[in-house]
Amino acid sequence: MQTTKTLHHGIVCAIIALLFYSGAVLDQKITSMFGFYMPAAAWFFIFIYPLCDSVTEVYGPKKTWGLLFAGYLVCCVFMLITSASIAMPYAPLQNNAIAKNIYPPLKSAMLSCFSLGYLAFFAGMFINVKLLGRWKLRFSGKYYFFRSYIASAISEGFVVVCANMLIWYHRIPFHSIVILILNTYALKLLLTITISCY
Asked: Which of the two residues, 94 and 44, has the higher pLDDT score?
């Protein structure tokens, strides 16, 4: 039983690290899907909320925070390893023109793992876990999907606004940031509903 629980926690931690890593790499790209503009990371990072909600519901907030920080730590190690590899000198036989165009932006994206955008995420996740735990006690453990959806909607709204402002302010026009915020939040709400149904 304990071995199975440890295995489950290890899998959750690995998924969280993967989502953090994907977010760091993809957050510097704005995609256009079906005419909607939003950061590429938004398509993948949404899965972290239902995952953490499930852990909070079954194991409690402390376990959720433990897995989140463990996943973030693993992600940071990957970021540092990748950044160090990119910083190494190029071999003369490599096509440096191509490499120098690809890797510097990637290195910048890697180091964004330590940026204010992630602080916004952890602040939003604190709101999410706090609300979900408090409402679990208030409703005696009932209405999980409703509690999860409302808590995620509130915390994701906070994260979307703060993260997009911190990442894109002074880099793209303000009205474009507003469009990113609205599109990203709408996608997150839709995916949260879809995932919660299953």
From this structure: 44
Determine the pLDDT at residue 21.
78
Token pair of 82, please?
Answer: 């990748």
| Residue type, position 172, single letter | I
- For the chain, what are the domain ranges? 2-197
Pick the closest to residue 68 from 136, 122, 23 (CA basis).
122
Closest CA to 130 of 147, 110, 105: 147
| Unique residue bearing structure tokens 């433990």 | 66
What's the average model confidence in pLDDT over 143-157? 86
What would the 3-class secondary structure string for the chain be?
CHHHHHHHHHHHHHHHHHHHHHHHHHCCCEEEECCEEEECCHHHHCCHHHHHHHHHHHHCHHHHHHHHHHHHHHHHHHHHHHHHHHHCCCCCCCCHHHHHHHHHHHHHHHHHHHCHHHHHHHHHHHHHHHHHHHHHHHCCCCCHHHHHHHHHHHHHHHHHHHHHHHHHCCCCCHHHHHHHHHHHHHHHHHHHHHHHHC
pTM, full prediction: 0.77
